[in-house]
Design goal:
This protein is of the alpha+beta class. It has helices at residues 42-52, 71-91, 97-102, 108-114, 148-162, and strands spanning 2-12, 22-31, 34-41. The chain has a domain at 2-111: PX Domain (2-Layer Sandwich), CATH 3.30.1520. One of its GO terms (molecular function) is phosphatidylinositol binding.
Length: 176
């Protein structure tokens, strides 16, 4: 499965020709647990659209608007391109090689074809802690051994009043 998002659009200016600045869209691609980022221009998205629109289902392509350096326009274009590429991935079971090349994905689609849906893979993580039964809902066990901690606490709190073998010492006699 391929998951794509476009989290940012950045202006890019080359040192050789600063007058030919353009916007680069950072495309994050998640495929089989691996994430990578691809920088693409609007014209590259447009060229991809022209190549694949006859061979697969594609949503409407977001139009080019002028002026393209206004932050609001850039954000709208970023959102439009993100919806477009997500729509291409969502509406097509088999992706054309052009889309995989555009996203710089190699084996992701092939691994999905090779994997049988009936095969169940065990989870890659093990539970840290588990209980066989809830200790608080279990009936108390009838053990032969007394609960030493409970007995000690009860004796410490209530011994002078409930324990006939214990004798209470008056306050004044403790210091002597």
């Amino acid at each position: 499965m391929i998951v794509v998002s476009i989290p940012a659009a950045e202006p890019e200016v080359t040192a050789r020709s600063p007058e030919k600045a353009h916007t680069v869209f950072l495309v994050e691609v998640l495929c089989n647990g691996r994430r990578h980022t691809v920088a693409k221009r609007y014209s590259e998205f447009q060229a991809l659209h022209k190549r694949i629109k006859k061979s697969c289902k594609v949503p409407d392509f977001p139009p080019r608007r002028v002026p393209n350096w206004v932050p609001k326009v850039l954000e709208q274009r970023r959102q439009g391109l993100e919806l477009y590429i997500q729509g291409v991935l969502c509406h097509n079971e088999e992706l054309p090689q052009d889309v995989l090349d555009f996203l710089k994905v190699r084996r992701c689609q092939q691994e999905l074809k090779d994997r049988s849906p009936a095969v169940s893979h065990p989870p890659s993580q093990q539970p840290v802690l588990g209980f066989h039964s809830d200790p608080y809902t279990r009936p108390p066990a009838m053990d032969a051994l007394p609960n030493a901690v409970l007995s000690g606490v009860l004796q410490g709190l209530y011994a002078p009043w409930h324990c006939p073998s214990c004798t209470a010492v008056p306050r004044g006699q403790l210091d002597s």
